[in-house]
Amino acid sequence: MVQPWHGRSAIASVGLNRNNSAPTRCNVERLVDELLSVGYSRAFTAALRPQEAQPFLNAGFRALEDLAVLRHGLCLPLATPTATHRRARRKDHLGVLTLDNRAFGDFWRLDSVSLKEALQATTTARFRVSTQGDAIVGYAVCGQSAGIGYLQRLGVAPESFGHGIGSALVMDALKWCKRRGASHALVNTQLTNLRALRLYRHLGFLEEKERLHVLEWTPE
Q1: Is residue 189 domain-resident?
Q2: Taking the C-alpha atoms of 58, 59, 63 and 65 in order, what is their torsion angle to the nearest 10 degrees?
Q3: Residue 168 falls within a domain, yes or no?
Q4: Are 170 and 177 in contact (CB under 8 A)?
Q5: Which end of the chain has fewer CB atoms at under 10 Å, N or C?
Q6: What is the percent of the chain where pLDDT is above 70?
């Protein structure tokens, strides 16, 4: 699946349809020919498992960033969140994207397309926001598919760090996943995002051995 990355016509975002068989080097080489034919000068992949990443590496993609994968067993008593939040409404999307652009660096920021993708990535989804007055100061997207919960996205306004907003949103997501019958919940984050890693570990997540890989392509 290929589409413009963050709406930029010269940069492609490459994702996998996991309902299909794993890609081969020949598949990826055909993809590269397609990227060149339509004028792309750069491409980024979605986060790939090691076995998914290898055909891309063999076809000339390069490693850009590795992501830690963390798992929560949902078997411990889950604390009651202390910060308040509510269901996100469609009119909140602009505020969420504004916050997201302040909370993340350029590469990891969401746009309206990637927010929609996050909300549609799982069979069921939950979208919550924390507010102070009229301002959105935190949000979380989580989902559940095939008995597994996923924390798809968590964002907190930089000036609101340390006030329990992120913890409350994560705990709400975990409790929701447990109610939906998930056996465990997963989240991934950059290895360089030490604040997020500390938060997830504090809330009972354990890091998996396997990491995910984001790859980059440019014409040689």
Answers
A1: no
A2: -120
A3: yes
A4: no
A5: C
A6: 99
